[in-house]
Amino acid sequence: MDHLEETMEDYEYYSYYPEYSSPEPYLEEKVYLGAVHWVSLVLCGLAFVLGIPGNAMVIWLTGFKWKKTVTTLWFLNLAVADFIFVLFLPLYISYVAMNFHWPFGIWLCKANSFIAQLNMLSSVFFLTAINLDRYIHLIHPALSQRYRTLKNCLVVIIFIWLLASLISGPALYFRDTVEFNNGTLCYNKFHEHDTDLTLMRHHVFTWVKFIVGYLFPLLAMSICYLCLICKVKKRSILISSIHFWTILAVVMAFLICWTPYHLFNILELTIHHNSYFHPVLQAGIPLSTGLAFLHSCLNPILYVLISKKFQARFRASVAEMLKHTLWEVSCSGTVSEQLRNSEIKNLPLLETTH
Question: TM segments (predicted)?
């Protein structure tokens, strides 16, 4: 009984995103969990390696090269959210690689958690907005032409960032560090002594993220996709099949990447009552977190890179950039040749003057 009480006291510090840590497991568990954590690191590393150039390219094109439209504004903000998120991934990768030891201090613990949740949520919200916008644009063109303006788009964008900030805000207040198992843990300190209040806040925090950051967006995207199929079949509307495959791919990627993450977060709520699922959480939370992080590098691939229009505009932008660069080099070469010829012509004159 004493051992159980000590174990449950250890679980006081548990909330696994990305503050996950664990007591010393048995030797055979170490090998298994080590392999799972390495898989998590590979997923996070892949998200970083692919997410930085992919989202940076989208930001460069939509923010600086292309004309500002409703579509480019959606993709710009989506890419900004994903880019900022993957930019902070090395902190989480280091955290897992150092056996869940946080050496970066309390302020980075707060800031990293806030920025991670802010950009994860805003990314999900922008995906939902893009799906709704595409559905209205294709099925209700008159309504789209009337309300689909840059001004209205900016209002929705500001609302999305504010909503994501509001949901992520508690991380700035509750995040804390504590010395634990010869290391430093970055975790949600919901309350220091009141167990009931800790449990209540943990439940609210988890369910709000699940409902607002997963369930509603998934339902919205799925309903848009199903309605699009029904409307097209009913009205015999001719729409390129690339739209169907793109939307389906986006919904499936969202489902595959985010479902395990939220399921394990809900399962984690049982840790306050018993330790039965603790080994499952030890393996599942880092793995599902890495899979969720991977979604940040899939957005530019699914939504932008598979678009034929994007590919054409990208090739045109690159061709224009190369043409401009070659023109500058050519001009530079011409100017240097002119200067050289001028020096040669003036050389005898300079000699005679001496």
Answer: 35-61, 73-93, 113-132, 153-174, 207-230, 242-263, 283-306
User: Is 300 among the domain residues?
Assistant: yes
What is the per-residue pLDDT across 266-323, written as a single tens digit (0 to 9) for each? 988 877 666 677 777 877 888 888 899 999 888 877 766 555 666 666 566 655 655 5
Residue 342 maps to a domain: no
The answer as to whether 131 is a domain residue is yes
Tell me which residues of the chain have a pLDDT lower than 70. Answer: 1-34, 232-244, 272-275, 303-354
Residue 333 located in a structural domain: no
pLDDT tens-place string over residues 25-63: 333 344 445 677 788 889 999 999 999 998 998 898 888
Planar angle of CA 249, 250, 251, nearest 5 degrees: 95
CATH number of the domain that residue 112 is part of: 1.20.1070.10
pTM of the predicted protein model: 0.77
How many domains is the chain built from?
Answer: 1
